[in-house]
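Re-run requested by the PI after the first attempt was lost when the workstation crashed. Everything re-entered from the original request form. Ligand of interest: zinc ion.
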Amino acid sequence: MRSQCPDCGKLYPVTKKQLRAPKTQVYCTQCKKKFIVAEILVEKTAKTAEANAFNQKKK
Ligand SMILES: [Zn+2]
């Protein structure tokens, strides 16, 4: 399981510990954006287009 930065699309590995704490936030090292990892989960083989669609639904 991975999480994706909503700003620049960089992927980060997500640990089980982070999933158990739904409000865990991380800073993207690439664009410095802060985001909640549990809100943006990406399957190993998921297409980024699906992740983007998910992000657009959320407001
Ligand atoms: Zn980023």
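Saved to the shared folder this time. The mean pLDDT is 84.
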